[in-house]
Amino acid sequence: MKAVILLSGGLDSSTVLYQALADGCECYAISFDYQQRHRRELQSASAIAACAGAVQHQVVEFDLRLWGGSALTDKTIDLPQMRSLDEMSQNIPVTYVPARNTIFLSFALAYAETMMAERVYIGVNALDYSGYPDCRPDYIQAMQEVFRLGTKLGREGQPITIVIPLINLKKTEIIQLGNQLGVPWELTWSCYAGKDIACGVCDSCRLRLAAFAELGLVDPLVYADSPSLLIPLPTPPTPPTLS
To answer: 197: domain range?
Structure first.
């Protein structure tokens, strides 16, 4: 079974790639260089794909700096730093990139239909404190209908399936799953700051560090700063399930 895997090089997407391999899929990983602040993640995506073994990997390039709208594509917008986990859960943060997953899934769909792949895997997570609108079950359900209606395969009764193995997992549970699958955390990258060493203070670093700490594990990444943030993650609300 062929599958296209959206691979950013982060903790979640790397776990998804290893899950797809465990599912017996022939994996085609796709990453995106959209001139994001944290393009360092692409090095990790390549390293993860190589470490995983028989995975074809390619990078698609385009430039979302043209209209900005996010701290990840506009360096004049400051990254949130040193926020508490409660603060992170209040509103959709400035690190949200407008329509990013819609763009990514569109590329993945075109790639999958071209090679007659049956699945597209994406590491969206509804329990993440980012609260991004394009990481929620109702969004994925809508995109599944787009996959069915917007493709030749879908209209012929063979729609490509969006697979979301992490959608209802807490960050700690994702790490536990990754450990079972053998994900090499030392090769992954989560930091938004855009430097060669993870900052330790952006939302993404703090969530990652807190999850490892809650499990009593040490994150193998080196951090420029790791302030006193190793506190248990509060239990997020239960999201609606896909019907």
So the answer is: 2-214
In contact, 5 and 164? CB cutoff 8 Å: no
- CA–CA dist 204, 234 (Å, integer): 16
Residue 27 within a domain: yes
Q: In what helix (H) or strand (E) does residue 5 lie, and over which residues does it extend?
A: strand 2-6
Length of the chain: 243
How many domains in the chain? 1
Residue 66 parent element (H or E): none
Inside any domain, residue 115? yes
Look at residue 237 and tell me whether its pLDDT is greater than 50: no
- The overall pTM is greater than 0.70: yes
Q: Can you give the CATH number for the domain in which 183 is found?
A: 3.40.50.620
Please check whether residue 117 lies inside any domain of the structure. Answer: yes
Identity of the residue numbered 34: Y
pLDDT digits (tens, 9 = 90+) for 34-65: 999 999 999 999 999 999 998 999 999 999 99
Query: What is the CA 214 to chain-centroid distance, rounded?
Result: 21
**Is 140 within a domain?**
yes
Quick check: 233 pLDDT over 50?
no
